[in-house]
Design a protein that fits this description.
Two copies of one chain form a homodimer. The first copy, chain A, is an all-alpha fold. The first copy, chain A, has helices at 13-20, 25-37, 44-54, 61-72, 78-101, 113-137, 143-165, 174-198, 204-231, 234-237, 243-246, 252-260, 263-275, 278-290, 293-310, 319-335, and strands at 106-107, 110-111. In chain A, strands 1-2 form a two-stranded antiparallel sheet.
Chain lengths: 340, 340
C-alpha cells in the first residue's frame, strides 16, 4: 500500500464517492429501500415523522462501509444489508437530536425535525429512531451483533455528551478531543466495518483490523467536517461558517491554535471565543489559518487516513477492499486542499 | 379471586407498597445497588450525570414487578435482577426526556436534569441511559430478552410521540387515548412481568397472562397518575394541579367530559382548554368532578386492575403472586378515593 503523499486533484466529491461505491451500487439500493421501509414499522400516526427523518438523502457512508467490509471479507450477505440499515438508523437518530442541540433549522437543504415540529417532537422522534434501530439489531441470529451495536450506540451518546459538556472549555486537550471524536463518530463506523467482517466469519485479527480502519476513517471524516465548518465554502457547505465556534464547540484547529499560542495570545483568543462577536470570528479563523493551526488539523486527519489504510493489510485484494481504500483517498482529496 | 368491590381504607401509600414488596426486599436492595453501579460503566466525565439521573429514589415499581413475576413463576434468579435494572434504566431515560418536554424543573423534590444542566445535556443524558439500558439487555444469553426489551422501548417512545402529537386534540377518542397509555406506560410493565416468567421457563400461556397483567397494571397506574394531576392533593403530589391540561395533554377525565357533554358545552370547554387561563381550569376540574368524568376515569382504572388480577389465574399460589395481587389492591386503594 502506497501512503497518500500526493493530493488528489480537485474533484466532484459526489462523483468520487460514487466511484468508491461502485461495487455496492445494487446492495446500497436495497439498503435505501429497507431504510425507507422502516417507517412502516411504526404506528400510522408516527410513520410520516419517521419517514421524513430517514429520507434525508444523506451520503449513507456508514451503510457503504458495512457493505464494503462484507464484500472485502467474503460476500455481501442479506445480513450485511440489515447491518447497514441499523447503523444508518442510529446515525439518523443522533442527527435529529444534534439538530435540537445546535438549534439548527436546516439539514441538507430541508427543514430539521425541530424546526418543523418543535423540540418536543424532535426529542421523541430521535428516541423512536434510536429504539427502532436497536430493536432491529436484536433480530440477528448471533447475540454479538446486537451487543456490539448497542455498545457502539452507547459510545456515540457518551461522546456527544462529553463534547457538549466541554463546550467553551479552552483547556480541552487535543488528546481528549480526539477521544471524543472516536466515540462520537469513529465508534459507529468501526462497528459497521468490524461487524461486516464478523458476519462473514472473518478471523478476530481481520475484525480488529476492520474495526481500526472504521475508527480512523470515521474520526478523520469528523476532523474534515470540523475543518469545513471553519474553512469550507459557505455556499457549497450550505451552512454558516464558524457555527461550531459560536456554540463553543472547540474543534481541532482551534484547540491547536489555543495551545500553541503564547499564554497572552491564548488568553486573548479565549476572550474572543467567549464573547462570540461574528466580526471577531472571521479574524480568528484567519489567524488559525496563518498560524498553521488548520494545516495541523488537516495533517492529523490525513495521517489518520493513512493509518486507516494500513489496517486493511491483512485483507486479500478485491474491488471491495479497493473501494475501502478509495474512500480514504477521496476523503484525503477533500481534506488536503483546506490546508493550502 | 375476589373482585375489588370495597375500597381499601385510607392508608399510607408508601407503607402499602412496602408491604407488597415484602417477598422481594432483599433482591430489590441488590437491584438498587446494581442500578447505581451502572454509572461507573460510563466515561468518568459522564459518570456523575448518569449517577444523578438514576439515584432519583423512584418507587422502583417496574423492577418490583419483574422480580415478583420471577418469584411467582419459580424463583428470583440473578437474571431477574438484571431484567429489573434494564426496565428501570429505560424508564429513567424516558423521565429525563419527559422533563424536557414538560419544562419540568423538579422531580421528586430534586432539580431535573434539564433544570440543572440545560436541555442539550438532558437530551444526551437520556440518550446515554437509553443506549446503556439496551446494551445491558444484550447481555442475556437468550436473544429473546433483548428483542422483547427493545420492542417495549420502541413502544414507549411511539406512545410518547403519539401523546405529544395529539396535545390539544379535542377529538382524541378514549380508545386512542387508552392505546397511547398502553404503549407509553403499559408496555414496559408488561415486558417486565412477561420476561420475569420467561426467565423461569414459564409456559407461553403464563407469559401471556403475565404480559396482560403488567399491561393493565401499568395502564391503570398511568390513569391514576393522570387523575392525580387533576384531583390530587397539591401539597402531597408536590406539583401544581392541572399541569397536564395546561400543556394540552388531555387525559381520560377531560376526554370523557368533552365527549359526554352536548356539542355547545363541549365547544365551550375546548375554548377554555385552548385559552389556558388558570382561573378557568379550576372551574373546569370542578365541572369534570360534578359531571362524573373523574368518576368515569377512576372506574376505568379500577376495572383495569380487576382485569389485571384475572390474568394471574393460571399461576399457582405463592407470596409473590399475592404481592402482585396486593399491588393491584394498593393501587385501587389509591385511585378509588378520587371519585368520592
Amino acid at each position: 500500500m502506497d501512503p497518500i503523499t500526493e493530493t488528489a486533484p480537485e474533484l466532484d466529491k459526489t462523483l468520487a464517492l460514487k466511484l468508491a461505491f461502485e461495487p455496492i451500487i445494487e446492495p446500497l439500493k436495497v439498503v435505501e429501500q429497507r431504510i425507507r421501509d422502516q417507517a412502516r414499522a411504526f404506528d400510522p400516526s408516527v410513520e410520516a415523522y419517521v419517514a421524513y427523518a430517514i429520507e434525508s438523502h444523506g451520503k449513507r457512508l456508514r451503510p457503504a462501509v458495512a457493505l464494503l467490509s462484507g464484500g472485502a471479507t467474503g460476500a455481501v450477505l442479506s445480513s450485511h444489508l440489515n447491518l447497514a440499515v441499523v447503523v444508518e438508523l442510529i446515525h439518523a437518530a443522533t442527527l435529529v437530536h444534534d439538530d435540537i442541540l445546535d438549534h439548527a433549522d436546516k439539514r441538507r437543504g430541508q427543514p430539521t425535525a425541530n424546526a418543523r415540529w418543535g423540540n418536543s417532537m424532535a426529542v421523541l422522534l430521535g428516541d423512536c429512531l434510536f429504539a427502532h434501530a436497536l430493536r432491529l439489531a436484536t433480530a440477528f441470529e448471533d447475540n454479538r451483533m446486537s451487543r456490539r451495536l448497542a455498545e457502539a450506540a452507547s459510545e456515540v451518546c457518551s461522546g456527544e455528551m462529553m463534547q457538549t459538556k466541554r463546550r467553551f472549555d479552552m483547556q480541552l486537550s487535543v488528546e481528549d478531543y480526539i477521544r471524543i471524536l472516536e466515540k462520537k463518530t469513529g465508534a459507529l463506523f468501526a462497528v459497521a466495518t468490524e461487524l461486516g467482517g464478523f458476519l462473514n466469519g472473518a478471523s478476530p485479527e481481520v475484525q480488529t483490523g476492520l474495526h481500526q480502519f472504521g475508527m480512523r476513517l470515521g474520526t478523520a471524516y469528523q476532523i474534515y467536517d470540523d475543518c469545513l465548518d471553519l474553512a469550507g465554502d459557505e455556499g457549497k457547505a450550505g451552512k454558516t461558517l464558524g457555527s461550531d465556534l459560536r456554540r463553543g464547540k472547540l474543534t481541532l484547529p482551534i484547540l491547536h491554535l489555543l495551545q500553541s499560542s503564547d499564554p497572552e495570545e491564548s488568553a486573548r483568543l479565549s476572550k474572543v471565543i467567549l464573547e462570540g462577536k461574528p466580526e471577531d470570528f472571521t479574524k480568528l479563523v484567519e489567524t488559525a489559518i496563518e498560524a498553521g493551526a488548520l494545516r495541523y488539523a488537516v495533517t492529523a486527519g490525513r495521517q489518520m487516513l493513512n493509518d486507516a489504510r494500513e489496517h486493511l493489510d491483512g485483507i486479500p485484494h478485491s474491488n471491495f477492499k479497493e473501494s475501502l481504500n478509495s474512500l480514504c483517498v477521496t476523503l484525503d482529496g477533500m481534506i488536503a486542499p483546506m490546508a493550502q
